[in-house]
Amino acid sequence: MAVQAQDELSGVVKQYAMYLRNVRGLAAKTVSEYCKDLRTFFRFLKLDRGLVDPSMELQDIPVSDVDLEFIRSISTYEIFAFLNYAADERSNMASTRQRKTTTLRSFFQYLSVHEKLLDHNPAENLVSPKKAKTLPHFLSLEQSIELLRAVDGPNAERDRCILTIFLNCGLRLSELVAINLSDVVRNNNTLRVLGKGNKERIVYLNQACQDAIAAYLAVRPKDGVKDRNALFLSNRKTRLKPISVEVMVKKYLEKIGLSGPGYSVHKLRHTAATLMYRYGNVDIRVLQDILGHANLGTTEIYTHTSSTQMENAINSNPLAQMAAPSKKKKTPPPEDGEDGE
């Protein structure tokens, strides 16, 4: 029976996890993914080195005994073998293998440079696999309006407020559920958002968001609230959990005929970004600040979502109507039997 990642961590990896969380300020979910990658990596090494019964299932291989001596013995070749295994045997996509590569580079960098526990970094020259660039899926303007109009039920004001903020501000799910009442600054219509890596940013609330928040606050429970700071509350009067928001969004998407793996909470973030860029003529760097992207390259994908904009850009070139020069008609040569030079 498989065990949880926390129970499988060795002392070295636990120390690394604390470094990621407290020094580098990475989100708990990100740290958990890094630890899972290392757990899989150590399990693979034990199996590949013949240190465990070859018939043993990978998820059952214990790695809590992986110590510094074991880590010092890891070679670059073994790291490449693991990444090949991830691609060939586990069918990991390029994005997943890219994260695993990042995990290994970070882990060995931490041990060799930060802690100076390794004389050699076997992952020093590791290159991430190229991740295929795909255009993000998003709802059209008409679908977005239909989604907002589909909201009903006893939590209508809360649900409509959540969908409105998603579609207008492009928040991540983790950012939305973390909003506190004090984060909504009503005198200047702004929202304080705590993003990835505990980076704080200010998002301006348009009239739709202001009205939706006001409507929800008018009916938000006041008595018996267990988390008085939380903006969005569950029926149990506790802070709304991410899974509850995911279920709610999925319900309304299905209600307007949009279902399947391609539709999720994150698609609403893509929708907000696309609508702002397509209809608002928003500068790409402003959009980067609104979405809280650390890398401009992440934001630039939204510049490729509108074929209409690209067509208009080409047609707006002042040379677009420049006519090609007309060709002069050539005099045909004389027929046989006619006079001519």
From TrEMBL:
<dbReference type="GO" id="GO:0007059">
    <property type="term" value="P:chromosome segregation"/>
</dbReference>
<feature type="domain" description="Tyr recombinase">
    <location>
        <begin position="134"/>
        <end position="315"/>
    </location>
</feature>
<keyword id="KW-0159">Chromosome partition</keyword>
<protein>
    <submittedName>
        <fullName>Tyrosine recombinase XerC</fullName>
    </submittedName>
</protein>
<dbReference type="Pfam" id="PF00589">
    <property type="entry name" value="Phage_integrase"/>
</dbReference>
<dbReference type="GO" id="GO:0051301">
    <property type="term" value="P:cell division"/>
</dbReference>
<dbReference type="InterPro" id="IPR050090">
    <property type="entry name" value="Tyrosine_recombinase_XerCD"/>
</dbReference>
<dbReference type="GO" id="GO:0003677">
    <property type="term" value="F:DNA binding"/>
</dbReference>
<keyword id="KW-0131">Cell cycle</keyword>
<feature type="domain" description="Core-binding (CB)">
    <location>
        <begin position="7"/>
        <end position="112"/>
    </location>
</feature>
<dbReference type="InterPro" id="IPR010998">
    <property type="entry name" value="Integrase_recombinase_N"/>
</dbReference>
<dbReference type="InterPro" id="IPR044068">
    <property type="entry name" value="CB"/>
</dbReference>
<keyword id="KW-0229">DNA integration</keyword>
<dbReference type="InterPro" id="IPR002104">
    <property type="entry name" value="Integrase_catalytic"/>
</dbReference>
<dbReference type="GO" id="GO:0006310">
    <property type="term" value="P:DNA recombination"/>
</dbReference>
<dbReference type="GO" id="GO:0005737">
    <property type="term" value="C:cytoplasm"/>
</dbReference>
<keyword id="KW-0963">Cytoplasm</keyword>
<dbReference type="InterPro" id="IPR013762">
    <property type="entry name" value="Integrase-like_cat_sf"/>
</dbReference>
<keyword id="KW-0238">DNA-binding</keyword>
<comment type="similarity">
    <text>Belongs to the 'phage' integrase family.</text>
</comment>
<dbReference type="GO" id="GO:0015074">
    <property type="term" value="P:DNA integration"/>
</dbReference>
<keyword id="KW-0132">Cell division</keyword>
<dbReference type="InterPro" id="IPR004107">
    <property type="entry name" value="Integrase_SAM-like_N"/>
</dbReference>
<keyword id="KW-0233">DNA recombination</keyword>
<dbReference type="InterPro" id="IPR011010">
    <property type="entry name" value="DNA_brk_join_enz"/>
</dbReference>
<comment type="function">
    <text>Site-specific tyrosine recombinase, which acts by catalyzing the cutting and rejoining of the recombining DNA molecules.</text>
</comment>
<dbReference type="Pfam" id="PF02899">
    <property type="entry name" value="Phage_int_SAM_1"/>
</dbReference>
<feature type="region of interest" description="Disordered">
    <location>
        <begin position="317"/>
        <end position="341"/>
    </location>
</feature>
